Amino acid sequence: MQAGKLKDRVTLYGARTGAGEPSWPAIGSAWAGFQEPRSVGRSEQTGIRAVDSTFVRMRYRAGMEHGQLIQRGADWYIVESVEPGQSRSELAISARRIIGQSALYRQRGGASDVSVLAFLTRENIYTGPMNEPRHQIELFQPQLPYPWGRRGDQITIRGATYKVDGVVEGSDDGITLRVMGTL
After folding, report:
1. CA torsion angle 150 151 152 154 (round to 10)
2. What pLDDT does 36 receive?
3. b vs e for 43-69, b when ≥16 Cβ sit within 10 Å of the residue's Cβ?
4. Rounded CA gap, 10 and 14, in Å?
5. Whole-angstrom Cα distance, residue 123 to residue 135?
6. Torsion angle, alpha carbons of 8, 11, 16, 20, to 10
7. Greatest distance between any 2 Cα atoms in the chain
8. Residue 112 — pLDDT band, cuts 50, 70, 90?
């Protein structure tokens, strides 16, 4: 492995921990090289995760595994797989970049907004007793204040403010969360 190709200083985070308030503990920093997919923009985006994987190289470090996070500047990546590289001194990592839009999240009764990455996944889903339109929004959990996804919380994305009605059942995968909201 050529150290000169490892140009980016990254912060590594463990998978989500905690029975109460969750956290993603920082587990260190490293130099890494990133090779973004060449097919960016060819597939329709359906969620907060990039459609194609990014290839990441770094020196070998014990404990790197699926579900951990890599932060490179303002960009976040979710580790999908970790394999030994061409030599035993390196790792070849497949990761998905979080490509949400900048949004603001405010907890019910809160006084301040928190910047989060969000993605409006579906619009105008008609549900409820009055068949009102709902919008499904996917959020990047490590940036959210806990507790999240409570009725009455607000998300402002693309100039529109949505009031959270609740969490989409089964959508909490430890990294992202889908909520239903109304305008």
Report:
1. 60
2. 85
3. eeeebbbbbbbbebbbeeeeebeeebb
4. 13
5. 5
6. -150
7. 62
8. very high
Other C-beta atoms closer than 10 Å to the C-beta of 156 total: 15
* 114: β partners: 105
pLDDT at 35 (0 to 100): 92
CB neighbours of residue 178 within 10 Å: 21
Please name every residue paired with 83 in a beta bridge, in sequence order, or none if there are none: 92
Task: Give the CA distances from residue 161 to residues 106, 147, 164, in Å, rounded to whole numbers and listed in that order.
Answer: 10, 19, 10
For residue range 133-151, what is the model confidence (pLDDT) as tens digits?
788 999 999 999 999 999 9
Q: 35, 32, 33, 91: which is closest to 65 by C-alpha?
A: 91
- 88: number of Cβ within 10 Å: 8
CA distance 130 to 60: 56
Dihedral through CA 101, CA 103, CA 107, CA 111, nearest 10? 160
The token pair at 155 is 């998300």
